Amino acid sequence: MFSHSRASASGLINGAKEAVALITQPRTLASRTLFPSRLANERLASHSHRPYATMNRDDNDPIEAIFRQKRLLRSRIRKELKNMDPVRRSEEDAAIQSIVLNAPWFQSSKSICAYISSPALREVDTSIIVSEILSKPANEGDVQNRKKLYVPRVEDRNSNMRMLRISSVDDLIVNSMDILEPALLDSDGKQHEDVLEASDPVDLFILPGLAFDRCGRRLGRGGGYYDLFLKKYQELTKQRQWKEPLRVALSYSVQIVEEGAIAVTSNDVSVDALASPAGVIPISPAAQERSMG
What we know:
alpha/beta, three-stranded antiparallel sheet, disordered N terminus
């Protein structure tokens, strides 16, 4: 289990207030983030890049060939993200979040699972999205129907992750890898609701990743956390006969790769749509049905 320390929230809230203003000007260069920038360190690199499966296989093993292709693509995309112009990154962050916030499938969602972006991992920023969810109800003027937000908490190094409900940025703490995640208990000492134990279904998953293609394939960072969790939630929806949530990945332009570049196994879960700086790319029938074009 990773150790934790309480994160300061005052600076985060002030940053969020300024960041929300950007949604009306998605191409501005002064993009602020809800979460403070952090330098990547060796621990972060070693944990986030851990392979999803045992790699001691013969080179002629087709499964090993898939993992080798994934490693090469991860290396390529990490370099492109590292070399990405900061101004362009800021512009794309603002544009992507504006697109999400104005999408009908986002506005109609009452329960959302979303990631807390990490500057060290060079993920698409979600600070404006998170701020909007926490500050506005599902229906304007109806505080009782405020959107529910669940965010990830890593449980161990065996790909186990939980999604816990938060009601404020004050519910977030910094873990040992310098990434914000929900504490187990809120400020009143009560346990945060686990999405797997919630009485209502999730409408929308907002997902990170390293690379994506236009067929819905997603390449993660190698830990397998999201794929394992999404599989668990798929089983839950079947058991409770719920409609599956829409899975939308946020992607910088450099992260969208050619078809066939992302090798997949049965463990990999695809996405329904991509939200990119150029707009939403609907992929699955579910995405098409929800008027994502």
